Amino acid sequence: MNNTIVINTDVKKATINKNIYGHFAEHLGRCIYEGLWVGEDSSIPNTNGIRNDVLEALRNVQIPVLRWPGGCFADEYHWKDGIGPRENRKHMVNTHWGGVVENNHFGTHEFMMLCDMLGAEPYICGNVGSGTVQEMSEWVEYMTFDGESPMANWRKENGRNEPWKLKYFGVGNENWGCGGSMRAEYYADLYRRYQTYVRNYGDNKIYKIAGGASADDYNWTEVLMREAGRMMDGLSLHYYTVPGDWAGKGSATDFTADEWNTTMEKALHIEELIVKHSTIMDKYDPDKRVGLIIDEWGTWFDVEPGTNPGFLYQQNTIRDALVAGVSLNIFNNHSDRVQMTNIAQTVNVLQAMVLTEGEKMILTPTYHVFDMYKVHQDAALLAVEPNIQKDEATKLPEIHVSASKNNSGKTNITLCNMSRDQERKVTIDLRGGSVSDMTGTILTSANMNDRNTFDNPDAVKPAPFNDMRVENNSISVTLPPMAVVLLTAAE
Ligand code: AHR
């Protein structure tokens, strides 16, 4: 039987919040230092300390929101160490990530400047694990209060007169683990207390995000929603695609066909997590006011041999591109509840967009998927009726899809073929409009571990896709193995 997909171009479901295409940058390894921030005196071309090549690449993918400063680092971070003249800033040990010296040269002002340069909304994660209520409250006052106050005055002394606009604020991170090893009940009470002092100053309205569950810890979501659901705007969820286990995650580049299939299976698992966490949320919040914020996701492999184990540096292959493609399709398809996601992490850490080595920079296959999928940002999710076969051997769906329509009436369909060795055929029936000017883009590669390197930076890159036949409103497409495809139809 053939794979068929019916897309109702006139049935719009939820809006795909552009923040689903969000990112995460932590003080971890070479993400912030070297990756984003090189300092004004660096020989690497930079603007106010931010490297120009990375900035330009990230601007192109239209990052809507950027989470900072962690991760586990957030619950060890004391924001007052990161303001004022850089030469006077306190040095500390980044105990969680590699035990390296953190000189605090990248702090609140630098982060806000970066967001401004990227055109991204800042999403700041506050310290519950080792910080005080007062410290968190004063951080918000420092950033957003417009008037006379100790914190606002201090901000002005540090060169910033106007308050910043800050919408997204996280109250702690992974508080069941690195953020304080708490029980759900205890964190729920702390969340209630800390968030009370995360104030809205003037017209700055903060969207408060509670630290959420890891993977299938449904009890955490149940307790948080029951005890504190009405005091939050978003509840987070963390899930990483790890082909092995935490002791041996598997290599990023040297893996078997079985590991490929397991990786795809584990990437698809996020859909079950979304459905089950959302069902619990529905019980307490049937109107879906509280967003599910998947503020850490992506592949997590063993670190690149020879690199600092605490730096989480890994290469990125066409396998990562497929994980990104299916994950983003899933997030789009659940955009009634999923309001933001942040891939971990933007530069040089885990499933990165870009990798740097000295003054060189390369774009990863994952970057190209974000570039292709940016057309979905803030578009209307379309009703899709897929009739898709499962591969007999791997049990993976033959095709994975999501579709949206943007404000100019363009329909964008993103398709993934997760098979390592089989091409897939699909017929797409576009109903509710006529198809014209169909164009396509494909990201694929010949070998499952193909990647971009500093010697061969364009080994995996998008190309025009023409393997389709359009007849009336029906499109017949053949996807090669290991492919992510974007089809665009004008109205
Ligand atoms: O992204 C790396 C780490 O993974 C984050 O710091 C932490 O929140 C998670 O465990």
TrEMBL record:
Keywords: Carbohydrate metabolism, Glycosidase, Hydrolase. Its EC number is 3.2.1.55. Pathway: Glycan metabolism. One of its GO terms (biological process) is polysaccharide catabolic process. The keyword Hydrolase applies. SUPFAM superfamilies: (Trans)glycosidases (SSF51445), Glycosyl hydrolase domain (SSF51011). It is an enzyme of class 3 (hydrolase). Residues 295-483 form the Alpha-L-arabinofuranosidase C-terminal domain. Pfam families: Alpha-L-AF_C, ASD1_dom. GO terms for molecular function: alpha-L-arabinofuranosidase activity. InterPro entries: Alpha-L-AF_C (IPR010720), ASD1_cat (IPR055235), GH (IPR017853), Glyco_hydro_b (IPR013780). Belongs to the glycosyl hydrolase 51 family. PANTHER family: ALPHA-L-ARABINOFURANOSIDASE C-RELATED, INTRACELLULAR EXO-ALPHA-L-ARABINOFURANOSIDASE 2. This is non-reducing end alpha-L-arabinofuranosidase.
